[in-house]
Amino acid sequence: MAEIKIENLKYRYPDTKELALDGITCDIKPGEFIGVIGRNGSGKSTFCQSLIGLVPNFYRGAYGGKVFIDDIEVRNVEVDELCQKVGMVFQNPFNQVTGSKLTVYEEIAFGLENFGIPRNEMKKRIDDALELLDIAKYRDRAPFDLSGGQMQRMAIASIIAMNPEIIVLDEPTSQLDPQGSEEVFKAVAKLSEKGITVIMVEHKIEKIAAYSDRIMLLDGGKLVAFDTPQEIFAREDLAEHGVVAPVYTRICKDLGLRVPGTDYYPVTLDEAHKLLACK
Amino acid sequence: MNTIEIKNLHFSYNAGEEILKGLNLTIDERSTAIIGQNGAGKTTFVKLLKGLLRPTEGQILFNGQDISKQTVATLAKDIGLIFQNPNDQIFKNTVLDEVMFGPMQIGMSKDKAKEVALKALDMVGLKGTEKINPYDLGLSERKMVSIAAIVAMDTKVVIFDEPTIAQDYMGKKRIQAIMKELQRQHKIVISILHDMDFVAETFDRAIVFAKGDALLDGDVKSVFKEKDILEKAYLEQPYTMQLCYELGYKEAFLNPEDFVAYKKANQ
Questions:
Q1: B176 touching A, CB under 8 A?
Q2: Does A177 touch chain B (CB under 8 A)?
Q3: Contact residues on chain A for B231, CB-CB shorter than 8 A
Q4: Band of the pLDDT at A279, cuts 50, 70, 90?
Q5: Res. A175 pLDDT band, cuts 50 70 90
Q6: Do A74 and A153 form a contact (C-beta atoms < 8 A)?
Q7: What is the mean pLDDT of residues A230-241?
Q8: Closest-CA residue to A193 (of A57, A9, A31)
Q9: What is the predicted ipTM?
Q10: Given A38, A150, A269, which is nearest B246 (Cβ)?
Q11: Whether residue B200 sits in one domain with residue B68
């Protein structure tokens, strides 16, 4: 159960002029499911990397402010110390897969072996992760023989097996078929129910609206808003920040239908259905 | 009119594990989306269309000619494929060199290649990035470089493998505009996609792949009405259609604008 505290985080990549992150301050409670949205280049992936310490410890560059995971200040520890507490699933599974393992099973075992997890414990964790991501049937396949979607689920499984307290996912479902993507959201939501903090970058706005407790809206490296999906998608300035509200919100807004007793428009299929069914 | 006829197409990577099991289709100038579960054989299918893989049985005829009798280099003039992962496609040190490479390989002069490359880069929104190393760009922009590289070749067929990966709303709108422009030029546009709303808004026809065959094939509206079959293929309806279905409407709408117009007209 880890808490994240970010104070005025600023960061600029080496040899660039503009800040990739510009004065981000926020607190994230243990077990929260946080969606991160924003146009391409808004700082979403950089923000993710600042939580696991790749920013600034791997990429270097100019860094200001503080990121705390509980009482650990991220910049003061090595990435390998932090990665048992914070797991990160990359946007592109090719960037994550070791390339040195012959089977999916061994690939998932890799991280655990590096941390000397006892054999029986390791087996259990791998089996659970294979099951959770529905890839047990590919356990003996070569990682690079998998389709893009299967490989992404293997990448997620290899992180989940590490039992992190925080899991950061950078567009983990972009290569998955619709149901595969829904399964990942459900699996990640289960982790969040268990008390694992989830930070998930996504362009699938309907899904992020349905699953997130709170949503961060980033633009130009700044945190424009950090609030519930209902508050975020009721904003009038979304287009200025390069994002669009969920289909259900847009439909209800165009029809002037707010959730009764609130200033919000529905953000999910269920909410829109209830409201429209009464009409 | 350009056509691709697929006759009894079989393919397997390993003996005994058939990925495509006797596919029969004709693809014409209606824009075609290929949808289906991960591992259904979609990418394998488009690699066969491009000639990168050869059928284990059956034929692919482009405008009546069997493509298996042509080399990949010859086919490159007619059929362009934008890879799912731009890193598999991009290898030059600058964006401009990358986009000029294809046109020069199919016989364009350096000046002509530069002209078409600059036009294609403008089309994908990357004007001004000519001298940058593609690997210094983010994934979404690198994907746009890979699109420009194929668009610049002016092939009769343009195949996209999951073009919307990593794209934000504006990026998707841009890709949609590129696809519509290619259709206007009477090119065959084929795309593998996992974004059902994008399919509903952009394509004329959808083919659902499942277990190595075409499970459903028709105009997008008729395909997306088949909720139960879609679910078996690990797909789902576009969001607006899901809402219509939940509400028990007989009429199914593919996008929010049509739904709202219908509601307003019937209030």
A1: no
A2: yes
A3: 179
A4: low
A5: confident
A6: no
A7: 96
A8: A31
A9: 0.88
A10: A269
A11: yes
Are B194 and B212 part of one and the same domain? yes
* Tens digits of residue pLDDT in B121-156: 999 999 999 999 999 888 889 999 999 999 999 999
Q: Do B239 and A269 touch (CB under 8 A)?
A: yes
Among A38, A178, A255, the residue with its CB nearest the CB of B260 is: A255
Match 């504006």 to its residue by tokens. B170
| pLDDT for res A144 | 86
CA dihedral defined by A96, A98, A103, A106, rounded to 10 degrees? -100
Structural domain for B33, as ranges: 4-236
Q: Which of residues 129-168 of A touch B (CB under 8 A)?
A: 146-150
Same domain for B138 and B242: no
B229 interfaces chain A, CB cutoff of 8 Å: no
Indicate whether B158 and B255 sit together in one domain: no
| Helix H or strand E encompassing A125 | helix A119-132
Among A41-45, A48-52, A142-146, B191-195, the minimum mean pLDDT is found in: A142-146
Residue B94's pLDDT is 96
Q: CA torsion sign, B113 to B29 to B50 to B67?
A: negative
Same domain, B217 and B257: no
Q: What CA–CA distance (Å, rounded) separates B230 from B223?
A: 8
pLDDT surpasses 80 at A67: yes
Judged by CB atoms closer than 8 Å, whether chains meet at B236 and A178 is answered as yes
| Domains: count for chain B | 2
CA triplet A112, A94, A135: central angle to 5 degrees? 60
Stretches in chain B below the pLDDT threshold 70? none
Q: What CATH number corresponds to the domain at position B142?
A: 3.40.50.300
| Rg of chain B on CA atoms, in Å | 19
Whether residues B63 and B15 share a domain: the answer is yes
Contact A273 B197 (CB under 8 A): no
Is the Cβ pair A251, B243 closer than 8 Å? yes
Chain A within 8 Å of B156 (Cβ-Cβ)?
A: no
A13 in contact with B, Cβ within 8 Å: no
